[in-house]
Amino acid sequence: MSEDQRTLTTRQGHPVSDNQSLRSVGERGPATLENYQFIEKITHFDRERIPERVVHARGTGAHGYFEAYGRIGDEPATKYTRAKVLTRAGKRTPVFVRFSTVIGGRESPETARDPRGFAVKLYTEDGNWDLVGNNLKVFFIRDAIKFPDMIHAFKPDPVSNRQEPWRFYDFVQFHPEALHMVTWVKSPWGIPASYRQMEGSGVNTYKLVNDEGVAHLVKFHWVPKAGVKNLTSQQAAEIQAKDVGHATRDLYEAIERGDYPEWEFCVQLMSDGEHPELDFDPLDDTKRWPEDQFPLLPVGRMVLDRNPPNVFADTEQSAFGTGVLVDGIDFSDDKMLQGRTLSYSDTQRYRVGPNYLQLPINAPRRDTRTNQRDGQMTCYVDQAGENPHVNYEPSSMGGLEEAPKRGRDHHQWVEGHLGRYQTSRTADDYKQAGERYRTFEDWEREDLIANLVADMKECPEHIRLRMVWHFWHCDEDYGRRVAEGAGIDLERALKLPPLEGKPAPGRRREAPTYTSGQPEEGTKAQGGKEATGQREPQFAK
What ranges does the record list as Polar residues composition bias (predicted)? Predict the structure, then answer.
């Protein structure tokens, strides 16, 4: 290394000959205003942290690649989509993945009971594709207008600065669609053992579009090749006592030793339409698509094989958005997806700046040519057309031109009265939550009940009664065990009327009887296989 390469400089390139002392009037006198070196240094230090993400603040990331199979199940991928990233067998596309917790701050423990973010940025030849999801396949709400309320209720109390169970359940008691997600997140599934042994899901419903403009509804899923492993509350507490960043360490060390994490990328497909034969709306992200009816079809695989050279530059400055799609993948009318598409990218412009896409971690791996200009922290001007004087379109003076279309447009017929609507198919608000309860392993169900009982003991009586009412309508055994554990009068809870403005729950599902620790035939088989034939991953207790 030459002497110049070793010389400390300012950000302006000025050599620094004294990095130990302010300029001052005498040895003990006041500092002067022309301390440019100090002012530059300290003001940059003051700005070394960009605003923390409102949600998903605690996270870690890794680089890797996605390899397409060129098929969707047994069919050529081109039957369903014209997206090159999915249709060209063997093609490898660079990716960056950020895993995260949701509610806690940047220094919160990774053992927190919380959904996990699973955000993938694919640097395709046609530009970036961001698949922004969670480890669980469902969500708490189905309308984006409720998202700020939900996060406010789940975040720390603005007075006590603590996450209070009563705030969580005070919100949930008025949103029966959240019961499904509550059943998942309060079970061991709410604390993944590691990011490598964690599923991922796009959660929202998208569309795949082929060359003829034919669309299919689609759900995206990542299935870990290492299997799924979750933690009980006790196991998580033991880990947290020694390590608040165990999942970050696990991912980093696995990649460093060459044990590269791998996931199979799968889709569920459904014809585009309302599907009145189903007792749930396929656009409702609080519901799962039953895998016996809509099986997971392999599409490709993803491997993470490189840690970021700098956590801040890559992981913290990485910016994702659900609206970042490529040709052949399109939006559905999923209300959460519609709201997230505005919110996510708007958040990045606030958090990182209007030119966040010029940062290397976010920039596409192909030339960009736009007529967008300037703004805070502009690093370069996108390549212009033949005439750099022309930054508008159309033009006869050598400006940029529209790209030719690939395939036919997907035309969706839309009509209806403008208004504010809630889905009318709400039977599954209780049905799927009850089904999930019954298909848990015994140890998962016991951990779920123990977690809910502890929470109920910290809630006011009226919230406890209503939550037991909800749990009982999901499954009678579910509600009874929570009531007994928390000392709640079940008969009194069941006398509550349905929520005002909400439809009454559908037919109750009888709780199965278990003997010798094994589920009855026809309710759940060993290894997490449901009576429908749907298979869940094996777990280590």
Answer: 7-23
Assign 98 to helix, strand or coil.
strand
pLDDT at 491 over 80: yes
Q: Report the phi/psi class of residue 416: left, alpha or beta, with left for phi > 0 and alpha for psi in -120 to 50.
A: left
The conformation of residue 403, written as its DSSP 8-state character, comes to P
Task: Give the number of other CB atoms < 10 A from CB of residue 34.
Answer: 9
DSSP 410-439: P--------S----S--THHHHHHHHHHHH
Give the three-state DSSP class for 518: strand
Residue 97 phi, psi (nearest 5): -120, 135
What would be the CATH architecture of the domain defined by 428-509?
Up-down Bundle (1.20)
Pairing mode of beta strands 297-306, 59-68:
antiparallel
For residue 227, give the amino acid letter: G
Under 8 Å between Cβ of 126 and 329: no
- At 403-426, the pLDDT tens digits run 888 888 888 888 888 788 888 888
The catalytic residue positions are 56, 134
Residue 512, pLDDT score: 36
Whether 287 contacts 432, CB under 8 Å: yes
Query: What angle, 0 to 180 degrees and rounded to 10, lies between the N-to-C axes of helices 233-240 and 442-456?
Result: 70
**On the CB side of 215, how many CA atoms lie within 13 Å of its CA?**
21
Single-letter residue type at 343:
S
What pTM, to 2 d.p., does this model score?
A: 0.87
CA dihedral 355, 105, 225, 241 (to 10 degrees): 150
Burial class (CB in 10 A: 0-12, 13-18, 19+), 156: middle
d(CA 197, CA 251): 10
Beta bridge partners of 414: none
Q: Where are the domains of the chain?
A: 59-164+194-358, 428-509
Nearest to 71 by CA among 272, 266, 211, 221: 266
Asked whether this chain's domains 59-164+194-358 and 428-509 adopt the same fold, the reply is no
CATH architecture of 59-164+194-358: Beta Barrel (2.40)
Q: Is residue 160 classed as helix, strand or coil in its secondary structure? A: coil
469/505 Cα distance (integer angstroms)? 10
> Beta-carbon neighbour count of residue 420 at 10 Å?
6
Residues 6+ apart with CB under 8 A from 426: 176, 177, 502, 503
Q: What are phi and psi of 202, to 5 degrees?
A: -70, -15
* Token code pair at residue 427: 């039977």
Helix or strand or coil: residue 516?
coil
Q: Check if the beta carbon of residue 85 is closer than 8 Å to that of residue 67.
A: no
